[in-house]
Each structure stands twice: as structure tokens, then as C-alpha cells.
């Protein structure tokens, strides 16, 4: 149960406020002087303060309230404080709101507005605490990840932090790993991280883009071929599985493997055995397989183009890589990383980078930055230098906002609704209504 501190030199006002706020289940401490209020703050866990601006008879300057406000904020910078003011204190109340006060209400106050304001601020306090806990957990994960070889990967988003934590956790095992995600998102980099942190880091690491292999040569590429096995095969060809023996084989664009190759791959995964094309001699290898695809393999299974048993054999551990537009906090750091000091991003270029949908993901971002760095003038990259398409992120409707995005925006802006709403592309009123719809406020 949250505890509210009420500070007013008039006992009748304190009692009225206490009775009003207790209707919503809040516990209240009432103090008549600033000194008592500061002592109470030391002794109890206070979630919110409602304070008057004057505490001495015949005093209307508001200076006592100003001093109490700053003393409370000095002890607890994040403590939400509602100011109760007479009309003569209005200018000072506005000044203190700019300094961090949560809100101000005139006397006599509106009961409904006061209850709504208090409940909203308490809910936001809970959201901020949850966000801080999430950030603490993410920082702890990032600190742990610093012990691993991340192959130069730059990451800041919670999604990538969690993905890399999972990748480094499964790396020491010999289990097959399936990396899913759109083209250009960095699936090969994730495979490299798994390999770099595995016991096989010093063993062969063979990469095969299955999607780039001609179908008629795919089996020969993967499993090898004897001389004369097909037209043009003048000598024995060592397949990728043999080359990767004792190490790791990375199969990219796995969804493009034909059914005949899928059967042989399933057998290798189950037994380690295969035959070269044109040979009856069974060979045996020990290979860890990491595969990647941008295809919807369950849909391919339903269409009869991918074997279900192979899917479950490959998908022992799945690492789902989110597209770049789902981790927008990484766009500018990645852009600066790719620039590597070659040029400076102007404000309009930064805005354009954040507004673009990035259908080509990290690969498209790198290409755009490399091109702009080459073509820009005076080492200053402007929006025009990026040559991005007109495709931008469409403004979100309030109904599209979820609790996680609202929580993150509020935490980023210290619970200030107006700033959070601006970041989310909605009005303050729309944000309040959406929060009520999601039961984030009562």
C-alpha cells in the first residue's frame, strides 16, 4: 500500500485530504510543518507528497513551500510532489513545476482531479521502478556479456541484450542452433558469436550460403562428389561437411535447401554419416550445425517444402533476431560505428535515419552510411546525402501503443507525460486514455 505524505499547517485540510485519498486505499501521514515532513521522510517510505506552499500565519509568499520542495527533492530526487496553492502562489507553482514538481492544484481543490492526479502519479512511480529494475537487469546482462567474445557487435536494446545472453549461454553446448530473422539483420554475426564462445572456437568454421548454391550442385557442395559423378566433375570434390569435420558448419538461407538435400542433412544430424555424390562409401563426421533462415519454416512445412523432422532437429535452440526497426535505439549508435569518424551526422540526417523503416536492416544502414560518407561535402552528412527512400515509419495510433513502449517512454522522460507523449507521437490526452485502456492507471 503506497504511503502519501500530506504537509499543511491547517489540520482540517490535512484531515480532509487524508480521508479523500484513503478512499482509494492509500495510507497517509499528515505533518503540520516542513520540519516534521522532512523527519517523516527519513523514517518512512513515502511514495508521493502533497504539500502546501505557506506554513506560517499571515504568510503568502510561498517561500516556505519553495524551500520545502527543494529540501524534499534533495533527499529524494524522484519523489513526486503535488503543490497545493492559493492564487497568489500560482507563478511560483509554475516555476516549481519547471523544476520538477509533478503538478499543482489550487485551493479549494477538485476532489476528482486530485484523486486522478495522485493515482496517475503513483502508477507512474511503479512503472518507473519497474523500468529501473529492467534497466538494472539489462545492465547486469551487459556486464556479464563483456566477459564474452561478441565479435565487435554493437548493441543497446533489451531485445539484443537478451538474444546475445542466450547465444553465449548455448555456445558451450554442442546443440544445433537455428537463427531466424529478416535479411540483413545480422544472422551471420550471431553465428560467429556462438562459434567464438564455443569449445570449437579454434576448429574449422565453414560458412555456406545455401541460397546462393545452384540446386544441381547443392548436394555436391555439402556432401562432396567423386570424380565423374556429374558433368564437369574431373576430380574428387570435398564437401563442406568433410571440411568442417571436428568444427562448426554454418548453413545460411536454410529454407532454400531442396527436399533431397534435406533428407541427407537429416541423416548427418542424426548419425554423422553420409555418402559423397557418386559413391557408396559411408563417411562419418562430427560437426556442429548452426543454421539460419529468413523463411517461415512452419509455413514451408505446411506447404510440403520443408521436412518437419528436420525442422525439429535443427531448431533445438532458436535465436530470433529482431529487425532493425524494432530496436530503434541502436540505429544512431550503429550509424556512428559505421562512420568510424569519417564524417559528422547533421541533425536532419539523424532524424531521417530514425524515421526510415530500414527494410534492409543493418546491411541497408551500413550501405547508406558508407555511401553518404563518400559523397558528402565537408565531412558533414545531411539528409540528402543518405539518399533514403520516402518510406518512413508511419505515426502510431494510440491503439497501437503497448504497455512496454509506454513504460519505456515514461521512464526515459522521468514520468513527464507531455514529453513521453511527444516521443510516442500522440497527445497527452491520448496517452492518458491509452494508459487507462491498458489499466496502467485507475
TrEMBL record:
<dbReference type="InterPro" id="IPR025944">
    <property type="entry name" value="Sigma_54_int_dom_CS"/>
</dbReference>
<keyword id="KW-0804">Transcription</keyword>
<dbReference type="InterPro" id="IPR027417">
    <property type="entry name" value="P-loop_NTPase"/>
</dbReference>
<dbReference type="GO" id="GO:0005524">
    <property type="term" value="F:ATP binding"/>
</dbReference>
<keyword id="KW-0547">Nucleotide-binding</keyword>
<dbReference type="Pfam" id="PF00072">
    <property type="entry name" value="Response_reg"/>
</dbReference>
<dbReference type="Pfam" id="PF00158">
    <property type="entry name" value="Sigma54_activat"/>
</dbReference>
<keyword id="KW-0805">Transcription regulation</keyword>
<keyword id="KW-0067">ATP-binding</keyword>
<feature type="domain" description="Response regulatory">
    <location>
        <begin position="3"/>
        <end position="122"/>
    </location>
</feature>
<dbReference type="GO" id="GO:0006355">
    <property type="term" value="P:regulation of DNA-templated transcription"/>
</dbReference>
<dbReference type="Pfam" id="PF25601">
    <property type="entry name" value="AAA_lid_14"/>
</dbReference>
<dbReference type="GO" id="GO:0043565">
    <property type="term" value="F:sequence-specific DNA binding"/>
</dbReference>
<dbReference type="GO" id="GO:0000160">
    <property type="term" value="P:phosphorelay signal transduction system"/>
</dbReference>
<feature type="modified residue" description="4-aspartylphosphate">
    <location>
        <position position="52"/>
    </location>
</feature>
<dbReference type="InterPro" id="IPR009057">
    <property type="entry name" value="Homeodomain-like_sf"/>
</dbReference>
<dbReference type="InterPro" id="IPR001789">
    <property type="entry name" value="Sig_transdc_resp-reg_receiver"/>
</dbReference>
<dbReference type="Pfam" id="PF02954">
    <property type="entry name" value="HTH_8"/>
</dbReference>
<dbReference type="InterPro" id="IPR002078">
    <property type="entry name" value="Sigma_54_int"/>
</dbReference>
<dbReference type="InterPro" id="IPR025943">
    <property type="entry name" value="Sigma_54_int_dom_ATP-bd_2"/>
</dbReference>
<dbReference type="InterPro" id="IPR002197">
    <property type="entry name" value="HTH_Fis"/>
</dbReference>
<dbReference type="InterPro" id="IPR003593">
    <property type="entry name" value="AAA+_ATPase"/>
</dbReference>
<dbReference type="InterPro" id="IPR058031">
    <property type="entry name" value="AAA_lid_NorR"/>
</dbReference>
<keyword id="KW-0597">Phosphoprotein</keyword>
<protein>
    <submittedName>
        <fullName>DNA-binding transcriptional response regulator, NtrC family, contains REC, AAA-type ATPase, and a Fis-type DNA-binding domains</fullName>
    </submittedName>
</protein>
<feature type="domain" description="Sigma-54 factor interaction">
    <location>
        <begin position="153"/>
        <end position="374"/>
    </location>
</feature>
<keyword id="KW-0238">DNA-binding</keyword>
<dbReference type="InterPro" id="IPR011006">
    <property type="entry name" value="CheY-like_superfamily"/>
</dbReference>
Amino acid at each position: 500500500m503506497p504511503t502519501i505524505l500530506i504537509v499543511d499547517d491547517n489540520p482540517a485540510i490535512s484531515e480532509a485530504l487524508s480521508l479523500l485519498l484513503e478512499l482509494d486505499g492509500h495510507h497517509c501521514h499528515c505533518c503540520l510543518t516542513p520540519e516534521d515532513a522532512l523527519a517523516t521522510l527519513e523514517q518512512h517510505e513515502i511514495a508521493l507528497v502533497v504539500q502546501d506552499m505557506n506554513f506560517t500565519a499571515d504568510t503568502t509568499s510561498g517561500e516556505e513551500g519553495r524551500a520545502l520542495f527543494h529540501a524534499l527533492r534533495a533527499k529524494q530526487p524522484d519523489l513526486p510532489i503535488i503543490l497545493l496553492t492559493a492564487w497568489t502562489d500560482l507563478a511560483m507553482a509554475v516555476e516549481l513545476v519547471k523544476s520538477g514538481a509533478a503538478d499543482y492544484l489550487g485551493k479549494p481543490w477538485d476532489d476528482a482531479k486530485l484523486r486522478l492526479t495522485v493515482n496517475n502519479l503513483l502508477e507512474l512511480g511503479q512503472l518507473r521502478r519497474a523500468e529501473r529494475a529492467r534497466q538494472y537487469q539489462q545492465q547486469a546482462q551487459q556486464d556479464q556479456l563483456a566477459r564474452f567474445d561478441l565479435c565487435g557487435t554493437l548493441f543497446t536494446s533489451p531485445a539484443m541484450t537478451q538474444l546475445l545472453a542466450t547465444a553465449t549461454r548455448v555456445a558451450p553446448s554442442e546443440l544445433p542452433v537455428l537463427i531466424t530473422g529478416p535479411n540483413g539483420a545480422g544472422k551471420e554475426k550471431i553465428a560467429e558469436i556462438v562459434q567464438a564462445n564455443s569449445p570449437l572456437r579454434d576448429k574449422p568454421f565453414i560458412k555456406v550460403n545455401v541460397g546462393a548454391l545452384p540446386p544441381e550442385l547443392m548436394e555436391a557442395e555439402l556432401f562432396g562428389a567423386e570424380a565423374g559423378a556429374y558433368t564437369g566433375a574431373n576430380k574428387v570434390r570435398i564437401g563442406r561437411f568433410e571440411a568442417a569435420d571436428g568444427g562448426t558448419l554454418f548453413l545460411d538461407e536454410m529454407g532454400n535447401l531442396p527436399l533431397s538435400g534435406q533428407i541427407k542433412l537429416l541423416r548427418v544430424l542424426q548419425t554423422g554419416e553420409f555418402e559423397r555424390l557418386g559413391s557408396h562409401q559411408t563417411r562419418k563426421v562430427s560437426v556442429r550445425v548452426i543454421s539460419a533462415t529468413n523463411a517461415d519454416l512452419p509455413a514451408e512445412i505446411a506447404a510440403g517444402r520443408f521436412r518437419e523432422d528436420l525442422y525439429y532437429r535443427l531448431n533445438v535452440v532458436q535465436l530470433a533476431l529482431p529487425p532493425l526497426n524494432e530496436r530503434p535505439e541502436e540505429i544512431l549508435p550503429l550509424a556512428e560505428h559505421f562512420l568510424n569518424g569519417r564524417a559528422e551526422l547533421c541533425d536532419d540526417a539523424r532524424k531521417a535515419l530514425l524515421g526510415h523503416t530500414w527494410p534492409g536492416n543493418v546491411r541497408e544502414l551500413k550501405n547508406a552510411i558508407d555511401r553518404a560518407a563518400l559523397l558528402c561535402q565537408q565531412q558533414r552528412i545531411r539528409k540528402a546525402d543518405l539518399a533514403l527512400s520516402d518510406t518512413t515509419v508511419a505515426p502510431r495510433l494510440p491503439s497501437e501503443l503497448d504497455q512496454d513502449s509506454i513504460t519505456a517512454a515514461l521512464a526515459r522522460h522521468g514520468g513527464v507525460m507531455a514529453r513521453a507523449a511527444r516521443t510516442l507521437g500522440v497527445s497527452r490526452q491520448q496517452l492518458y486514455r491509452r494508459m487507462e485502456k491498458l489499466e496502467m492507471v485507475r
